[in-house]
Amino acid sequence: MSKECFTFLLEKVKPDLTKKITRFQKPISPIERLAVCIRFLATGDSFKTISYSFRLGHSTVTEIVHSTCRSIVKRFKKDVIPEPTEEMWRKIGEDFEKLRGFPNCIGALDGKHFVIEAPGNSGSIYFNYKHTFSIVLLALVDACYKFIAVDVGAYGRNSDGGIFAQCNLGKRLENGTLHVPIGKNLPGSSTFAPYVIVGDEAFPLKTYLMRPYPGHQATGDANKTNFNHRLSLARRLVENAFGILTQRFRIFQRRMKLAPENVDYIILSTCVLHNFLCEQKDYTGLINHSAQNAQPHLLNPLSVQPGRPANDAFAVRETFKEYLASTAGRNFIGQQYEE
């Protein structure tokens, strides 16, 4: 983080970090409070280590980190997490075509488990398939590694597909209320296709969500194998974004011994800071492409969406498969590599 970014961040959160001066004690300054929080997130040092470094009490450092993370979310959410507009979705689609070679794509979707200390009296709700206790971040990422949408706080035992079905993103995509354009012709052809997001096998197949063909179906079928390959290249962006987040904020490289509600705000604040740094272009060496103006949207839990893929969903996937295997699709992909 550059000095300019830190100063701008300080000015935004300063009202929340400024404490009243009393006759008994001079309060800790806002700049020191922000420095303590950033140090904690960036290094992953324990509260005890940071308390020695800044000569503050252990409980004081704990309070500073939690309150500052909440302030970052409060002050920056409206700036870097507005609701996506139709124009934003189209811009994201253009970036995927130009940078990633997957047409009509508006995001890559996946979940990330953040390891925590087992909460007291929590049973197995945080226990995941990796045999650790975790909280899940479900994220939709654009072609430049920025978070378009995030859902934080799901139990570790839940699957990515189940979390997607219960969050606001899945509900609004299902209802068509997220301002997503209806679609357009695929490049170099007269074939119309809707805008879609890409995910792995953990997610359901929908008209707006593409997942790869099962392995037994793709074996021996060159077109299906090619589709899976192209989808994988686009989908891995979200995994790269998680890697960048972990590299920037080393707090996630160890087990967090914090209450789940505090972990939620820490994860959300790092997502906000990640997008903020991308917008300030303060990320040279972490990603190779300049950040764009796609914005994320905070999600809230909603009802489950049961059911199996409809025929329309299969038809949309077949459309993309046939296009990517066609002459127009091969020419389109070739142009991306030449650029």
UniProtKB/TrEMBL annotation:
GO molecular-function terms, A-Z: hydrolase activity; metal ion binding; nuclease activity
Cofactor(s) it depends on: a divalent metal cation
Pfam families registered for this protein in UniProt: DDE_Tnp_4 (PF13359)
Superkingdom field: Eukaryota
Domain spans labelled DDE Tnp4: 109-275
InterPro entries: HARBI1-like (IPR045249), HARBI1_dom (IPR027806)
GO cellular component terms given for this protein: nucleus
TM region(s), chain numbering: none
UniProt subcellular location: Nucleus
PANTHER family: NUCLEASE HARBI1-LIKE PROTEIN, PTHR22930
The family this protein is said to belong to: Belongs to the HARBI1 family.
Protein name: DDE Tnp4 domain-containing protein
